[in-house]
Amino acid sequence: MRDVAVVGVGMTKFGEIWDKSLRDLYVEAALGAIENSGVDHIDSMIVGCMSGGLFVGQEHLGSMLADYLGIKNLPASRVESACASGGLAFRHALIEVASGMSDIVMASGVEKMNDISGDGATYALATAADQEYEVFHGATFPGLYALMAVAHIEKYGTTRDMLAAVAVKNHDNGALNPNAQYPFKITMDTVKSSVMIADPLRILDCSPITDGAAAVILTTVDIAKKLGKPYVKITGSGHATDTIALHSRDDMTTIASATVAADKAFKMAGKTIKDVDFAEVHDCFTIAEIMVMESLGLYAPGKAGEAVLKGETALDGKFPINTSGGLKSKGHPVGATGVAQIVEIYKQLTGQAENGRQLKSNPKVGLAQNMGGSGGSSLVHILEVA
Amino acid sequence: MYSARDWREYPRRYRLEAGKCKKCGKILFPARLICPKCGAREFETEMLPDTGKVLTFTVIRTAPSQFTDIAPYAIAIAELTNGVKLTAQLVDCDVNTVKVGMEVRIEFRRVQTDAYSGILSYGYKFVPKWY
Amino acid sequence: MGKVGIVGYGCHLPRHRIKVEEIAKVWGADAPSYKKGLMLREKSVPPPDCDTITLSVEATKNALRRAGGINTAEIGAIYIGSESHPYAVKPSGATVAEAIGATPDIHCADFEFACKAGSEAMFVCLGLVKAGEIKYGLAIGGDTSQGAPGDALEYSAAAGAAAFIMGSENLIAESIDTYSFMTDTPDFWRREYEFYPQHAGRYTGEPAYFKHTCGAAEGMMKKVGMKPADFTYAVFHQPNGKFPMRAGKMLGFTQEQMEPGWLSPTLGNTYSGASPIGLTSTLDIAKPGDTILMVSYGSGSGSDGFVWKVTDRIDEVRDKAVRTRKLLDENLIYIDYGTYAKFRHKIKKNA
Ligand SMILES: [Zn+2]
Fold first, then answer.
1. Cβ atoms C197, C153 nearer than 8 A
2. What is the nearest CA distance from B22 to chain A, expressed in angstroms?
3. Residue of A318, A314, A353 lying closest to A169 (CA atoms)
4. Is C349 helix (H, G, I), strand (E, B) or coil?
5. Which range marks the domain in which residue A74 is found?
6. Does A34 share its domain with A97?
7. Relative to the CA of B83, which of A210, A230, B122, C27 has its CA 20 to 30 Å away?
8. Distance, CA B35 to ligand 1 centroid (Å)?
9. To which H or E segment does residue B26 belong?
10. CATH code where residue A367 lies
11. What is the predicted pLDDT for the residue at C137?
12. Segments making up each domain of chain B, as ranges
């Protein structure tokens, strides 16, 4: 396998982007990444998108997006793993470059979620769960994470304040991210008094409905060096699945797919969680961030919530999590999220994070964890300074 | 909903038919072609028991389009007396009184109604076990 | 052919109730006079996920529990009597048969004769068993009936179902004989595509309910050579609390004979389920050797009469499933008119 680097990144502003279509958003992010990297061409592109079909009625995205990117006959694939589609696109780009099949591949993700009603978006997102044995009965995505939250609260005594602290911390970070959908701070009281969506999760425990796209350029470390732009090395990649239905799992308080994906990524990188300096994790709901922190081995089961409350994962904490604002504040255009996480890791490792959210600790190793469904899939990537 | 998709699920939704692995005894709901525990491919049909207890639950207050008329409604994962876990609505009770550990019974109910003229989809729901 | 009769019986009722006062308040009606006039205090209401099919399935499961492990594949006929079949075209019985594993060797039809449809199902199942055509027949009477908003019927139109497995062995109650009485009497009807039934006011009384109920009861008693005093219990169709009591007293029955099957004061009118559910609550307390007269009534109009003789097996099976009185009296959920209107799809919404 060849050593692979990320050599440039691009993303759109995340949010309710009324005047831009799926293709416009995508091309904006893709051109940004290509220009940022300094490459004069790409050999192929991989697009992560959860549901072009349900959100905007468009499938065959590889073809359409390569066409609008203006690159005739480019090999372009679309991959899907629900909300982990972006992470999966990144992994496939990595495999393609590492294997020697291509030298320069763009990993990208896009989702245009605001062209349908709220009910419709709830329906589209729920297609990531088991249609016949969960969704048929009225389960929703917030509902499935709420089921995990209640189980976690029951088992570990996780509190309302711990959940709220995740949202507050991520908004603190997102307030410094110019691309964030909600770049402002919120208070514990605002979270705790916001409207209930699926008990105990309130609207401010949930990531929003977002339009947006992100793209990164992967190439060999050798080519990256020649380009003369800042680059970071991809040293670990792990991918794992779990049962599609939450009720099929032995333990509903942990994300086993994240644990297994992380183990694989650490093994590949020759590192442990102790070697990692900061992470972007999939905080689609506040409880998800807490469960993922525990599933990655960063904290013992039941101990993550307290660490968030204590500020251990804040920007100036001992292990900053979601410096970008996370899905909660930055926004969650589902197919783009996994790639946007890589954008943030790249910026932090190359000292390019905006508005004072650059970590002062001079981080060397970052981790990105992207998750599909109720944890039915997870991607973990480890990136290091060159 | 196209009715064939609903019809295909009748054995599970109407009669709670599960598959019991002939080799390792694992009970799968729904039945599958291959046992995830031991890899065996032979199963016998077994009916799930109709009582169990709530392992976890939530109250859906923002519902998908098919369920907006009945929101807020409780969804629970219950463990049945034979250890099988499944997800369903928990009805016939004040949603604010649902508790982990609550005993439930399975009843046959209408689960989805396809607008005013489409197919009616029936299946299982949990109700509090009060007798 | 030997004896035929009931092998298993069961009832199912929704837990939701609405009080007469709650309905009267909305329409500016005088609740005390309605309660007195109808002898009815409250009625059952089906939640949005309950309909004739779901009530029938649950009632049937209770009947199967009391039938003591019969093979459902041996049920040769299923008939559901109802005026609220969920589909205008698509049999309710097919879903119920599928739910209990009784398909495909089974004859199935949905019956309709206003409130008499349930007893028709019982009548036909008994006949087929007696003829030796089937081993077991499943007869169900159930409804989620609708009364037009503000109409007198709105105070009584209720929901519930009773199921009976008819057979010729291991009887709980033997069918001694049956008798039917029917004329064309236009007291109550619902035209195709109409949502609510209409009725002819006081004409539904003497020339309709009383003539047919009493006619069937008298004809039945004459046919078997019995008089009111010979029966332990009597169950009549109960569109409200008042009519069955009055009919029974006109015929010479005492309040004590009718009390166990007289559920309408707190259940309302379950239409096709009414006298069948009354029979289940009577069987719940009956002793071996007791005799029960049951007379249904359906507008349009006709009545079916049955004479049942309870066997020793009743003591063994009555508590293998929940008793009807328990479903009627315990763990109730009272709802207001707004919830009731939402449950019963009385509110106009955007499609
Ligand atoms: Zn097995």
1. yes
2. 20
3. A314
4. coil
5. 4-117+210-232
6. yes
7. B122
8. 5
9. none
10. 3.40.47.10
11. 98
12. 1-48, 49-131
Asked if C98's CB is within 8 angstroms of B15's CB, the reply is yes
Whether residues A105 and A24 share a domain: the answer is yes
Total number of residues shown for chain A: 386
Is residue A9 located within the same domain as residue A27? yes
Q: Which of C11, C49, C344 is most worth mutating to test chain B (most B CB atoms within 10 A of its CB)?
A: C49
Tell me whether domains C5-171+321-343 and C174-314 share a fold: yes
Distance from Cα A251 to the centre of ligand 1, integer Å: 20
Residue A4: CB partners within 8 Å, gap ≥ 6? A94, A97, A98, A218, A219, A220, A221, A233, A234
In this structure, which amino acid lies at residue A172? Answer: D
Is C98 one of the catalytic residues? no
Q: Does C32 sit behind a cis peptide bond, omega within 30 degrees of 0 on the bond before it?
A: no
C115 is catalytic: yes
Instruction: Count the domains in chain A.
Output: 2
Per-residue pLDDT reduced to its tens digit, B45-62: 999 999 999 999 999 999
Q: Helix H segments across A19-84?
A: 22-37, 52-56, 61-69
Give me Rg for the CA atoms of chain C: 19
- State the fold for domain C5-171+321-343: Peroxisomal Thiolase; Chain A, domain 1 (3.40.47)
3-class SS of residue C215: helix
Query: What is the DSSP-derived secondary structure letter of residue C195?
Result: S
DSSP output for A120-175: HHHHHHHTTS-TTTTGGGT--HHHHHHHHHHHHHHHH---HHHHHHHHHHHHHHHT
Task: Provide the H-helix boundaries in A157-284.
Answer: 160-174, 188-192, 221-227, 256-269
> Which member of C22, C58, C83, C120 is catalytic?
C83
Report how far residue A53's alpha carbon sits from residue A40's, in angstroms, rounded to the nearest whole number: 32
Task: Write out the H or E segment, with its range, that includes residue B108.
Answer: strand B103-113
Q: Secondary structure of C38-92 in the HEC alphabet?
A: HCCCEEEECCCCCCHHHHHHHHHHHHHHHHCCCCHHHEEEEEEECCCCCCCCCCH
**Which residue has 């179902």 as its token pair?**
C161
Q: Which residues of B touch A141 (CB under 8 A)?
A: none
Architecture of domain C174-314 in CATH?
A: 3-Layer(aba) Sandwich (3.40)
For residues A20 and A107, membership in a common domain is answered with yes
pLDDT tens, C277-294?
A: 999 999 999 999 999 999
Q: Model confidence over C192-212: pLDDT tens digits?
A: 888 899 999 999 999 999 999
Residue A244 one-letter amino acid: I
What is the predicted pLDDT for the residue at B66? 86
Which candidate, A355, A322, A354, places its Cα nearest to that of A341? A322
Collect all residues with Cβ–Cβ distance below 8 Å to B86 and sequence separation of at least 6.
A133, A247, B29, B48, B77, B78, B80, B124
Distance CA A310, CA C205 (A): 76
Q: Are C217 and C292 in contact (CB under 8 A)?
A: no
> Do A16 and A162 share a domain, yes or no?
no
| Three-state DSSP class for residue A85 | helix
In sequence order, the β-bridge partners of residue A4 are A220, A234
Which pLDDT value is given to residue B116? 76
Instruction: Give residue A249's pLDDT.
Output: 97
Cross-sheet strand order for the sheet of B27-28? B27-28, B17-21, B43-47
Q: Of all helices (H) and strands (E), which one includes residue C326? A: helix C324-329
C351·B116 Cβ contact <8 A: yes
H helices, E strands: number in chain A: 14, 11
CATH code at B49-131 = 2.40.50
Beta-ladder partners of A112: A211
In this predicted structure, the answer to whether residue C1 has a pLDDT above a threshold of 60 is no
Does A327 reside within a domain? yes
Q: Per the CB < 8 Å rule, is B75 touching A150? A: no
What is the Cα–Cα distance from A153 to A330, expressed in whole angstroms?
Answer: 26
Chain B residues near residue C17 by CB distance under 8 angstroms: none
Question: ipTM value of the model?
Answer: 0.97
Mark whether A206 is an active-site residue. Answer: no
